[in-house]
Specification:
Layout: E1 7-10, H1 12-22, H2 28-45, E2 53-55, E3 65-69, E4 86-93, E5 98-106, H3 115-121
Length: 126
């Protein structure tokens, strides 16, 4: 498979989130690969918006752009399809063609993204 983005990094906290969620959702590793190869490619490369990825506003972070994935297909959650309840927060650097995966959580465990984590890694413009 050809490389879609120049670089994809997984923040340490994201890796911890993934490890924790993988115990409950065994297909998560493959689901993340599919997410990168399909959803992120559609949105950032082909400019196809299927309303599954939303830019997070009101953070004060101008660069990179921070996004929340609301529709994430997880095969472990049978019958749920993209309404799995798993959320991914990531940063996209359009000029570098780079993605940082910041946070992954299950909506049943917490309602919203960890804004402190985002702001710790990406400085808002004052």
């Amino acid at each position: 498979m050809s490389k879609i983005f120049n670089e994809i990094t997984y923040l340490d906290e994201f890796e911890k989130d993934k490890k924790k969620l993988s115990k409950r959702f065994k297909t998560l590793h493959d689901d993340i690969e599919m997410f990168i190869n399909v959803q992120l490619k559609l949105y950032h490369k082909l400019q196809i918006d299927n309303n599954s990825i939303l830019k997070i506003e009101n953070l004060g972070v101008q660069y990179p752009k921070i996004y929340k994935v609301k529709k994430f297909a997880c095969k472990s959650l049978k019958g749920k399809g993209v309404q799995s309840g798993i959320r991914i927060i990531y940063a996209y650097y359009p000029d570098l063609d780079k993605i940082d995966l910041i946070e992954m959580y299950y909506k049943g465990d917490k309602e919203n993204e960890d804004r402190d984590r985002i702001l710790k890694n990406y400085k808002p413009i004052k």
